[in-house]
Amino acid sequence: MRGSRQVSAGTRYPVEDSPGTFGLASPKCFKSRPEGFDSGLGYKPWWIAQHLVDKSTYSNVSMSRGLDNYLVDCAKRRGKEIGGLESVDEHVAVLGGLSERDGESLLIDALAHPKNGAAEFNRMHKAWLKGDTAALWAGDAQFRKAAPSIAARFVDERNVKWMPRIEAELKSGKPTAIVAGALHFSGPNSVIALLEKRGYKIEQL
Q1: CB contact burial 31-48 (16+ within 10 A = b; e otherwise)
Q2: For the purposes of burial, counting CB atoms within 10 Å of the CB of 129, is it exposed (0-12), middle (13-18) or buried (19 or more)?
Q3: What is the 3-state secondary structure (H, E, C) of the chain?
Q4: What radius of gyration do the chain's Cα atoms show?
Q5: Over its length of 205 residues, how does the chain's per-residue pLDDT go in tens digits?
């Protein structure tokens, strides 16, 4: 992981072809430095967006209290089998394999959050509570338009890669819960749409 988060040796971010990006940032956009942070190293822009840009400026979201962690804890307490739709290496590669330009796009998007983050988060949260996948997909439209290749890399391409693993679980005959981010269940290339194309009947409860 350390290697995937660093810019190539001898290089610091921002690189020469992106001098204006950090001009978008003010000190309040950055949170306290995470454990192990070394200012002497160069960090990839996606890593800065994930770890140094302060999401708390627009919401009180707690990753540790997310639904996925809650379900994992429940499964562990009940002695249920737990597996991943992708390996750790595959998961890291989603971000670690981004080009510098695509990584910078993520950073710019993260730096823009303090301006409209609270309203956007509340809108998406309400859609999530209602199970409104159409609204969730529409809420991501601006990012898909601005960075279509990144959006596809994060959602559509992973959905396709997950299909063999999901189908294997469905065919096992064992009751199975598939847990993923809400956007993976939204849009024309969602997990739901891909399963329906394979003949499965999906019902939203």
Answers
A1: eeeeeeeeeeebbbbbbb
A2: exposed
A3: CHHHHECCCCCCCCCCCCCCHHHHCCHHHECCCCCCCCCCCCECHHHHHHHCECHHHCCCCCHHHCHHHHHHHHHHHCCCCCCCCCCHHHHHHHHHCCCHHHHHHHHHHHHHHHHHHHHHHHHHHHHHHHCCHHHHHHHCHHHHHHCHHHHHHHHHHHHHHHHHHHHHHHHCCCCCCCCCCHHHHCCCCCHHHHHHHCCCCCCCC
A4: 19
A5: 444 544 433 334 555 545 556 555 555 455 555 555 555 456 777 777 776 665 554 445 556 667 888 899 999 999 999 999 999 999 889 988 888 888 888 887 777 765 566 777 888 889 999 999 999 999 989 889 988 999 999 999 999 999 999 999 999 989 999 999 999 999 999 999 999 999 999 998 8
Structure tokens of 202? 């999906």
